[in-house]
Amino acid sequence: MEDVIVYNNRRQLQIGSKKHFIRAFLELKAGKSEHTAISYERDIKDFFGVEEVDEIDLEYIRSINIFHVQQYIMELQNKGYSSATINRKISSLSALYKWLMKYEDNYSDIRLIKFNPFANVKEEKPVITNKITEFLTEDEAKTLIGSIDTSTVLGLRNKTILALALTTALRKSEMINIKISHVTRYGQYDVIEVTRKGGKKDLVKLQPKIKELIEEYLYATGRNFEDNKSEYLFVGHGVNKRNNEKLDPSTLNYMIKKVAMECGINKKLKVHSTRHSAITMAITQGATIEKVREFAAHRSIATTNRYIHSIDKLRENPGDNIDII
């Protein structure tokens, strides 16, 4: 049951057992994607200039208008944020307002808010410029994996992460949320149970060598499938405060850049590059578009088509037939 209560002379919406309304919103989003909820919370706090979302009351929410949104977009642009990041921040805030607009009271006909100032800013938002994602060729992928020193736990973890990513096309959020219990058997196959976008559960087949790497990594960390099943598979192994804790998404991007630099691969790589690489290698090796769509867990086959179109554009380039030298 939802209540609007008054304290400190300010109207606050609390859900259920006195839970702040934005906390309720974030928990709802976390049910589908924890990573998305974290991103939403960061964007909301950034816009409202608070340390905690609990500091935001309904009057603050209502006070925002189109001019505040326009000013915010200009400030982000002046700070050098990318168009994609700006659009994501606006979408996060718009989602909160859309959720609040659903509230109507059947007894009093009260509406919490009437207008979403983030909904009609198409002209103000910057146009997203699609950057070409750098990816690895099959030879580069082999070089990258083969260059990692596995005599340390950290090296073994990094090799396992990258080998898994390059053979499964898993997303960053999907990899960091794998728990040891998710590595299991399905019939005759070794698989990992992953949670896709939107909270959809899926099974991802493991190559035998990848399963062996996972087993080696677990052994090196003093863990096993039975006694440590509730723990995250990939954890920190440094001396910082995140030692033995779930990996932060930024750690994976830092790791792949470092490994690539050390083995002489001069590309601007991030974790999405491993996903892009895996999908591209699957296509070039002749997999059908439907099989690639399932492999990549694309909701729409149009997304998979973009990868195929990019490869065909290079493979079937009319310019190759121009012989002038």
Please explain how this structure is put together.
This protein has 325 residues and is mostly helical. The chain has two domains: 2-100, DNA polymerase, domain 1 (Orthogonal Bundle); 138-316, hpI Integrase, Chain A (Orthogonal Bundle), CATH 1.10.443.10. It is built from 13 helices and six strands. The strands form two sheets. The protein has a three-stranded antiparallel sheet with strand order 1-2-3. Strands 4-5-6 form a three-stranded antiparallel sheet, with no helix packed on it. Strand 1 (2-7) and strand 2 form a beta hairpin. Helix 2 (34-48) packs across helix 5. It is globular, with a radius of gyration of 24 Å. The model is unreliable at 1-11 (pLDDT under 50).
Quick structural summary:
With 325 residues, this protein is mostly helical.
Q: Give the helix proportion (percent range).
A: 40-55%
The helix-strand sequence is EEEHHHHHHHHEEEHHHHH
What CATH calls the topology of the largest domain is hpI Integrase, Chain A
The CATH superfamily name of the largest domain is: Intergrase catalytic core
Strand order of the largest sheet: 1-2-3
Oligomeric state of this protein: single chain
Shape: globular
Q: How many structural domains can be distinguished in the coordinates?
A: 2
Output the radius of gyration. Answer: 24 Å
Strand fraction: 5-15%
Q: How many helices does DSSP assign?
A: 13
Structural class: mainly alpha
The largest sheet is:
3 strands, antiparallel
- For the secondary structure, the number of strands is 6
Calculate the mean pLDDT score and round it: 83
Model regions low in confidence, pLDDT < 50 over at least 5 residues: 1-11
Question: From the 3D coordinates, which CATH architecture of the largest domain would you assign?
Answer: Orthogonal Bundle
Distance between the termini: 77 Å
At the first level of CATH, what is the class of the largest domain? Mainly Alpha
